[in-house]
Every structure is written in C-alpha cells, then in structure tokens.
Amino acid sequence: xxxxxxxxxxxxxxxxxxxxxxxxxxxxxxxxxxxxxxxxxxxxxxxxxxxxxxxxxxxxxxxxxxxxxxxxxxxxxxxxxxxxxxxxxxxxxxxxxxxxxxxxxxxxxxxxxxxxxxxxxxxxxxxxxxxxxxxxxxxxxxxxxxxxxxxxxxxxxxxxxxxxxxxxxxxxxxxxxxxxx
Length: 181
Description:
Layout: E1 6-8, E2 17-20, E3 25-27, H1 33-41, H2 53-61, E4 71-74, H3 80-93, E5 98-101, E6 113-115, E7 118-119, H4 122-140, H5 149-165, E8 169-173
Helix pairs in contact: 1-4, 2-4, 2-5, 4-5
C-alpha cells in the first residue's frame, strides 16, 4: 500500500525507481553512504568524454555554485597531489579555511573532498548525491548522455564547498585529460 508520497513500483529497476501517487515516476533516494559511492562509481563505464556541456548543464541546474568560490587550480603531469597538500597546509597555517579537491582518493572515497584537512562527512556525501542523482538521470535521457563519474564527483565537490562548508579558497587538482598535460 502507498506510504507517504511514494510507493514502490513493480516496473523498472526496483531500487532506483519509484512512482508518485499521481502515477509519475520519481527517483528512489539513496539510503546509505555505500549506496551513494556505488552509484557514483557505477558511472565509471561512461569513461572520459571530452567537452564541457554535461558539467555546464549540471552547474546551470544547480544554480552555478562554482561562481561563489575562489580557486587555486593545480595542473600538470606529476606532483599535483603533493602540491595540493603543500598549498592546503600553508593556507591552513595562514588561517584560511580551505577546501581541497583531489583525485584519486588515497584510502576512502571521501578523501577527494576535504575541508580544513577533514574528509566530507559520509552523511553529507549521501545528501549531495541524492540532490545530484535526479539531475544526472534527467541528463542521461538527453542527447548529452549521462555525466561521467568524474563530472558527478566535480559537481558534488562544488556543491559541498559552495553550499555546506564555505571555504575561503579551494585548492583544486585540475584534471585536464589525456593529451592536455
């Protein structure tokens, strides 16, 4: 029987699809941190796809959170992670609140998104994933196709820094893609 606003649909993917009481489809929320990470990592098969259209589309749908932030972009072939760690340390010692976005993570997915040296809380990653997921699924049904794992991670980081912790500056390991560095 229906419970609240949604009931479980008998058609489509049972975990991902729900139907509103008015008969329209809705996306079932991710319930745990592990589900959120599995969803994001499940986008890896989309690989690297050149172009900015998908991330620009996500940013537009989210109100352009990146425009509220100040960045130090770290790019190059080697030493990006070490340079990010050094810059973060210096800025923290100087009294700044610092966001740090790096890839790949060292021991846990949350390592990618740090604020003042601390990983994003699992519950915050889950909340932001649930905010992004309907937009990603909507975009996947357009000619742009699904955003990639890296694009979703980027959007998640921007939401975290612009809407949750508000650092003075974000040290951003910039992925330029193969052939650009």
